[in-house]
Amino acid sequence: MGVIVHLLGTLVSLWPNRSRIKNSKDLFWEPISILKPLKGYDSGLEENLKTFLQLDYPSYEILFSVATFEDPAYLTAKRLIETNPHVAASLVVDPTHLGPNPKVNNMVKAYERAKNDLVLISDSNVRVEKDYLKKLSRYTRNKEVGMVTATVSGTEAKGLGGKLEAVFLNSFYARWMKLLFFVGKPCVVGKSMLFRKSVAQRFGGINILARYLAEDYMAGEAVKRLGLKVILAEDPVPQIIGQLKFKEFWSRHIRWGRIRKSQAFIAFMVEPFLLSVVSSLIGCVLFRSLFSVSPFYFIAGQMTVWFIFEIPTLIRSGSKINLEVFVIWLFRELLAFPLWINIALGNTVKWRGKELRLELGGLLAPDCTI
Amino acid sequence: MLADFHVHSTFSDGKLSIPEVVDLYGKRGFGVIGITDHVGETHTVIGKAAGHLGLCLTKATFPLYMEILRSEAERAWRLYRMVVIPGVELSKNSISNHRSAHIIALGIDKFMSADGDVADIAKMIRNEGALSIAAHPVDSGKLEKQTFHLWNRRAELALAFDAWEVASGDRLFPQVLNSSLPKIASSDLHIARQMTSWKTVLDCERNPQAVLEAIRKQELQFRFYRDNTHETIHPYIHSGYRSLVDNGSYRSSTGNFSQSLAQ
Prior knowledge:
The complex is a heterodimer.
Chain A: H1 2-14, E1 32-37, H2 45-53, E2 60-66, H3 72-83, E3 88-93, H4 102-113, E4 118-122, H5 132-137, E5 145-149, E6 152-158, H6 159-182, E7 192-196, H7 197-200, H8 215-225, E8 229-232, E9 237-243, H9 246-263, H10 265-270, H11 276-291, H12 295-316, H13 323-344, E10 348-351, E11 354-357
Parallel strand pairs in A: 1-2, 1-4, 2-3, 5-8, 6-9
Antiparallel strand pairs in A: 4-7, 5-7, 10-11
Chain B: E1 2-7, H1 18-26, E2 32-40, H2 45-52, H3 62-80, E3 83-92, E4 101-106, H4 118-127, E5 131-134, H5 149-152, H6 154-157, E6 163-168, E7 171-172, H7 174-177, E8 183-186, E9 197-202, H8 208-216, E10 220-225, E11 245-246, E12 249-252, E13 255-256, H9 257-262
Parallel strand pairs in B: 1-2, 2-3, 5-6, 6-8
Antiparallel strand pairs in B: 1-9, 3-4, 4-5, 6-7, 9-10, 11-12, 12-13
Helix pairs in contact in B: 1-3
């Protein structure tokens, strides 16, 4: 079963997205407000933000937001605004606390000040091409589209954790994102979320998302419940991973996995059967008993085939194919099941210095700070 | 005005989004609808599974549900002069039909749990100023999950509910019809095709308070609504009650059918 789903995922990940309007030369480019919630100094922050000040788009504004003046990102954003007067950029400092989600708290005032109906929420650790906004906004010309998101590709990874993260984003994650959209179960990623304020107002605006840890997922759910489409853009958004230790990779995936578990418990329970190692072990037992195939050869063969299927997705995400990538990929696959066990054993997550408790559906418990 | 107080959306097991439901009823000139998505129990396997499968509202999705209902109620009023009342169908499902019960809470403004005894749930609903309605309390005659628990305890619970469904979808329930219980007729709509069904007719002001009060006072009538797009559906009427039916509107030989029901 795992192999079939894996192959299907690979095929879907290569399938072109035909939702956007292609002939865009004479079309009106609707003004966009970009929200950039910032906290701390991420790897390559200044370079990442600069790419948003150099976008090839007729009319857009950028609203940087930080919770306090003491935030290390405050000075960076201020400096960028001063040195780029040609862009309508501003900085909002606001300590509003609407709920346990610090990202939503951070950007809620900036969202209120956004002048345009089309709003893009973009994380600080993504770096984009000049035509990024044009590519994204094309999808919104279809009135049935309520939100546009994108997969993330990992780049500039350093350290074992960083390399594991990059391989994960460029293979497993990219494949599953596309597969979920293909089967009509879209999963929105907060690193790049384009939507209309007028649509968000219909589900209570972004304020209501402050109570969820995965505000992006819930925003997508709300858009779907309004009967609108959630679209996955064809091009991935490059995320600058930078230096990441193994421990950071591990805790990050525990957090991500537990959110996933709280939101889609049944899918989470099926996950192990779709992992390469578990699938290989099940297969090797079956093939040994039925055809007396050597377990070693079976596992080696299946893992090789699995990696070969992974190659197109890796290439599409901008990853190189070499021995190092293979070894890192294999290591991540071996980690996947122990990681799943660890995720299954808890309901709390650590995020930005706080320990939060998750309830069914991704809601943060009222007494969430433990 | 035509009314339907038992309608589902994609927030539980309905196939239409809330905006689609609003347009479906608004374009047909309805005066009031109650959107009542399922809320499952949190400590039973069936309830938990329904929550995980997205077949019922949870604490997590409820805030979005209420916000969308609020904005759609505004739109419904602006476009169609139709009132949208928020509600939930508290669903206690068991393997046994006799232990299963569905209770509609109409006119809610906060999340309600389906856990606990049905008498306590009905009391809780009323304490919140909402209406408690016993949903499809007898055999619906369809191949579906039946919910007999409320009917089995009707003597004890008669006063706990503001209304009992005398009809659900295209089925009229003779047992409820012949009882002295307060009544209401609804479609239990999950798909557009189920528009062709029994509805309640009210003659009151178009605002939620007036509508809820009219149900409490039983100032209502019932009518079989035949949707033009689904003309092939005919109401299922028990043989003993066919004389009440006159080409889709329902009257007794002694007067208005609704009067005989309300007594």
